[in-house]
Design brief:
The chain has helices at 4-33, 37-70, 84-95, 98-109, 117-125, 132-145, 152-165, 178-186, 194-201, 210-224, 233-252. By secondary structure, the protein is an all-alpha fold. It is globular, with a radius of gyration of 23 Å. The chain contains eleven helices and no strands. Helix content is 70%, strand content 0%.
Length: 253
């Protein structure tokens, strides 16, 4: 056993290490800024905070990537609720685009949970390979262990999100749909509400007016149009989903 002085020294070293790990960038940048006077001090403090946020985001995305690759279903640091990372990963896997996945996550859960969905989806997209079946099995396991968190309303939102990501897949890919496999694992019965999914594709609540639908369609069609100079294959897929959703809603009204 360590003597009392040794224990105090050990605790001091651990606290110092933790302090430097959390606030090292802020301390160093602020200290450097003091040589330039008051405004240098302020600039150093601001730079330190900004750099700390960037490093934390990089660290979080790396830990999310490792958690997905290892199939770790323990609570992951930075999640707004247990399993959020796996839901993001399923959205990325289904859409093939982390930006579109982040948009859908924000539309579905943004009103209740404040999170950096872009970082979560970016961290999920960096994990290779993303196996849809494994992600679903991990998510089902998390839901089973956190029943109080996953109320019927939350589970319904998960299926709405998955239906939205699967929108326009068609009958040929019916057996591949993550929502179908997740429902089997959870013994959950749900109605595939294509109309609600179509509204969600456009970032709207069910029952939005046709004028709102047209406005959202124009905005998203311009954003994802494949003829843009910086257009990509993922944007073309998103454009197809937006067009399909708009046409589906138009035919229903």
């Amino acid at each position: 056993m360590l003597p009392e002085k040794g224990k105090c020294r050990y605790r001091f070293c651990k606290h110092t290490e933790l302090l430097l790990k959390r606030y090292g960038c802020i301390i160093i940048c602020t200290a450097a800024g003091t040589f330039a006077g008051f405004w240098g001090l302020a600039a150093g403090l601001a730079s330190g905070i900004f750099l700390s946020l960037i490093l934390k985001r990089v660290s979080d995305e790396t830990s999310w990537k490792k958690a997905l690759e290892q199939g770790n279903t323990a609570i992951v640091r930075g999640e707004p609720f247990p399993g959020a990372l796996y839901i993001c990963a399923l959205a990325v896997c289904s859409l093939g685009d982390n930006r579109e996945a982040a948009r859908l996550m924000k539309n579905t859960f943004g009103a209740e949970y404040h999170a950096d969905w872009n970082s979560l989806c970016r961290g999920a997209s960096s994990a290779q390979p993303l196996n849809s079946d494994l992600l679903i099995e991990c998510l089902a396991n998390i839901i089973g262990k956190n029943e109080t968190e996953f109320t019927p309303a939350v589970i319904k939102k998960i299926f709405i999100l998955l239906n939205t990501a699967e929108f326009s897949w068609g009958e040929k890919r019916e057996s591949e749909k993550p929502s179908r496999y997740l429902a089997e694992l959870l013994d959950y019965r749900y109605a595939n509400d294509e109309l609600s999914a179509a509204y969600c594709v456009l970032g709207l609540a069910s029952g939005a007016t046709m004028e709102q639908v047209k406005t959202a369609h124009r905005k998203l069609a311009a954003r994802f149009h494949p003829d843009r100079i910086d257009g990509a294959a993922a944007d073309a897929d998103a454009f197809f989903r937006v067009q399909s959703a708009y046409e589906f809603i138009s035919h229903q009204q």
